[in-house]
Design a protein that fits this description.
Blueprint (H helix, E strand, L loop, with lengths): L12 E4 L2 E4 L10 H5 L2 E3 L2 E4 L2 E2 L2 H14 L8 H14 L5 E9 L13 E9 L6 H6 L1 E10 L16 H12 L4 E6 L4 E4 L3 E6 L2 E5 L8 H12 L4 E4 L11 E6 L3 E12 L2 E6 L4 H16 L1
Parallel strand pairs: 8-9, 8-15, 12-13
Antiparallel strand pairs: 1-2, 1-7, 3-6, 4-5, 4-6, 6-7, 9-10, 11-12, 11-14, 14-15, 15-16
Helix pairs in contact: 2-3
Length: 300
């Protein structure tokens, strides 16, 4: 803990409701609706060599996420695009991470929000590889999460909503305490869903298989990697995947803005009291997609 630099005590600028403010002054009151009732949506965006990757797509999704939660982002996508560049220039970031976030304010401290205003902030900071370089070479070791992704009629699962990440945090923390890199989450049906913050892919008999995003986020990186695979002539099948199929795969990897393309070395854990264990190689297909994705991000 002593080596951590708290995110509320840093130098720099944050874009807050339309203007740049000093980093330490970008604050909200403790009685805001986003904190108490999870009425908040956010994005994670990468910067490569001073260019923001898929900037507009992320800000469009921020708007859609807010709409799914019943509120409207009070800035256009174009304004948010420009603000993201304003933030990275103000902080001198060439390679890093951007966090746009929108939340309901403090006017009402109850379930009803008919009089609430919406606030928006954008921060950016330097950020290296999420899982580290060693994971790119050896692959991640995953366990099976105890928590499952909810059904789409119980939560706004197509939204990148802050509240949906509560079980992700719980699952990730337990996985790390137990000695794993991350956790693989199943959905309410018991089908494979995603990791705690990234989508998942499996190579089986030369074909890439990935779960249909019908109860979790259809990631922007996910769609990008699917397109890259198809460009390389690799068939991609989106379907329901059961846990007992995982040992049949020879390669597996995660995709996400933070994760980029990161191979998986193993998955193990209990599924309905049945022990599951799968081992994967960091193979040719995974490496080809890692290289293709890296080249695409660097090209802007």
């Amino acid at each position: 803990m002593a080596n951590l630099i708290p995110f509320d005590d840093r130098d720099g600028k944050i874009w807050h409701n339309g203007r740049l403010v000093d980093w330490r002054d970008a604050k909200v009151h403790v009685l805001n609706h986003g904190l108490h009732y999870a009425s908040s949506v956010f994005e994670g965006v990468r910067v490569y060599n001073g260019k923001i990757f898929k900037n507009t797509e992320h800000n469009e999704r921020l708007h859609r996420s807010a709409e799914l939660l019943g509120f409207k982002v009070p800035f256009t996508v174009q304004q948010l695009d420009e603000a993201c560049y304003e933030v990275i220039r103000a902080n001198g970031i060439e390679n890093g991470y951007i966090r746009p976030i929108a939340w309901r304010g403090s006017e009402q401290m109850a379930i009803l929000t008919d009089q609430s205003t919406t606030h928006v902030a954008i921060a950016a900071w330097q950020w290296p590889s999420y899982f580290g370089d060693e994971a790119k070479q050896k692959g991640l070791n995953l366990t099976i999460a105890n928590w499952r992704r909810p059904a789409p009629n119980t939560a706004p699962t197509a939204s990148k909503a802050a509240g949906l990440y509560m079980i992700c945090t719980m699952s990730k923390n337990k996985a790390v305490v137990d000695g794993y890199s991350d956790a693989l989450m199943l959905d309410w049906r018991g089908q494979v869903a995603e990791a705690t913050g990234a989508n998942v892919f499996f190579l089986m008999d030369g074909v890439i298989h990935t779960p249909k995003p019908d109860c979790f986020l259809d990631g922007i990186t996910r769609r990008t990697v699917i397109a890259l695979a198809k460009e390389q002539g690799i068939e991609v099948v989106e379907r329901a995947i059961l846990p007992n199929e995982l040992p049949k795969a020879t390669e597996a990897f995660l995709t996400g803005t933070a994760a980029e393309v990161t191979p998986i070395g193993s998955i193990e854990g209990d599924v309905d009291s049945v022990k599951l264990e799968a081992r994967y190689q960091v193979g040719e297909t995974t490496r080809a997609l890692m290289e293709a994705y890296s080249a695409l991000t660097l090209a802007g």
